[in-house]
Amino acid sequence: MNAPVTDYDVLRVFCGPRGGYGNELGVVRDGSLLPDRDDRQALAAKLGFSETVFVDDPERGVIDIYTPTLRLPFAGHPCVGTAWLLDVPELVTPAGPVGTRLDGEFTWIEARPEWAPPRTLRQYATPSEVDDLEIPPPGEWIYAWSWEDEPAGRIRARAFPGRDDGIDEDEATGAAALLLTAELGRALNITQGSGSQILTAPQPGGWVEVGGRVVLEGQER
What we know:
Largest sheet: 14 strands, mixed
Distance between the termini: 18 Å
Strand content: 35-45%
Number of strands: 14
Helix content: 10-25%
CATH architecture of the largest domain: Roll
Number of helices: 4
CATH superfamily of the largest domain: Diaminopimelate Epimerase, Chain A, domain 1
Radius of gyration: 16 Å
Number of domains: 2
């Protein structure tokens, strides 16, 4: 199926301190142009981002998230990026309402770990071991991590989705950071991929905040 042509914004989410790195995200601001799920999935596959967001109601923050091969009820970096773009107090996802806030250079979302898709959180002894990992074959979704400075909560991580859709390594993944924060029960400062930065903090009632910097790359068609 050929998806109709439409405009979309390209963001980088979870950028480093100087605005570099980050995970690219496509956002179709007018989701009404592509109401059919098959058309949305086709466009997400064509664009090839790890996720593409379709905004169904910009005032209420209603969004729909797709990878190149499937629809997601929730995902971290799409929610952070779209929260920054729309500047709304919450996003409405199929998983549930995601609280949002802007705090200086960081955009934060608040979500529940059980909304995140399953990931294998695999700890390594040193950051260099994480750096030296080769791309694993398709299979399980692996979040490889190691302490850089445990007392300070600093972590080195890489993410391997294990999908056969061209996304061998995910540069920055908020959902995996959410799960790791819930497992460790503490605030984290994560350097993932080539140099992306993700901040997290546990909240009362089992919620977790995930934050990062967002940069607008431009609008494409």
